[in-house]
User: Fold this.
Amino acid sequence: FLALPLAILSFGLLDMNRASLQRRQLQDALDAATLIAARSTAVTDPALDTVGDAAFLAETTGLGISLTGANSTFAAGSDNKVIGTVTVSIKPIITNLWTQSDMTVRATSEVVRSVNKLEVALVLDNTGSMASNLGSGGTKINALIDASKDLVDTLYAAAARASETDAVKIAVVPFSMTVNIGTSNASANWLSPTLPSAYGVDVFATPQNRFTLHTQTGTSWAGCVESRPDPYDIADTAPSTAIPASLFVPYFAPDEPDSKSVTYTSGGWTYFYSANNNWITNDQSSSGDWFIRQGEVAKYATSNKSKVTSGAKTTTTSGPNDGCGITSVLRMTNVRTSSGASTVKDKLDQMVATGNTNVAMGTVWGWHMVSPNAPFADGSAYGTRNVSKVLVLLTDGDNVMSETSDPNDSTYSGYGYVWQKRLKNASNVALDVGASGTERRDAMDSRQTKTCAAAKAKGVIIYAIGVGVSTHSKTVLQGCATSADKYYDVTDSAQLSAVFNTIAGSIQNLRIAK
Assistant:
């Protein structure tokens, strides 16, 4: 009489033991698979599920259970968790006689991810050549704006999923022959209105306050700055009044002598020149020397305001702001909210193509944006756990300091005039009048290369993009990139969208600590 109930009890216990064993085996496999999914770069639920399912099936090989990807689910949870669940039906030996169903075994696993915060600077070429077409994608500047905005949308979505309130911050640095830091910084203590002697030779006969000259001539500072002298032009060293060379100077292109009104004698020959940026008519000096007339101070007197051309007062194509037509930078902005993302995209929409190329200056200001040091000090301290600093650097051409046929031998730029000897070559020798276009390009390349190396030494990750660039510039950009896979060569502006999407995905994945 006892044999039947004892057999049923024995087989029932066997079913329970099987279920318990397989639950433990499934739990172990699920724990391992969830950990693999959490350590991956996947951030969306479908991507996490793909990684987790593959890992789970590999972990359960040999358990004798028929499983598919449908049995397991992996998804992002709150507080940076990855949650794995599995449900399996087991055919019992005898218990289904009274339960009328298979046994269901379930397991759940949670893994907390170590997630990086992102500090990103978009360092974007806004030079005149960006207004041209490249292939089928229309103008390079318009394609750049659209592609950059897509990148912002991707990182905004990543920030919105994060539990941190400041997971992703983005800065924008448009650059050409200089960088516009914004007129709101006019009173900043890290700006020196006069050119410190450590910068080298000034264009004026005596030191002049740039803001005062603007006021006296009825013009306004457009927000651009000049490149600091070596070695501060390639470093994120904080500006300090104790070190005048470390301060920044407002950009001010001087009035060049009236057309054909001055002579310059060299080798016994007398030459007549036409100025590139003559914006005060009938300058005061009676001297026939170009540099005396260019550097005289009296012509900037308030009494001469009527002699200032209208273009100097209203445009950036002539006058003291000649070359400062680019839009201003945007400091790091939190994109967790749609409002923050819109602020960044609005700045991108303001970009225009104007001026020559100074990638070195753009790069160092991109570094300033993510740096913990002044002038902005918006970045986290170097070495801060779980913080990634990123520069996305794009240019479409070679570095340029224009040559001219007048005694200045160059247009005014972030380096001033070439004769001011503020631009140094790879051997740290300052260029002067007579330097060839190639020598100027190579010198600027060396400043760019040194800046990239210094930033990378601090842990900054650099993505570099060449848009229709020469073989020469491609090599320089490849050297700037953190690794070979972080350089992108664009031969058609239509490719920019795909490139920026790829970079956005890569940057987004940096949030997951390996």
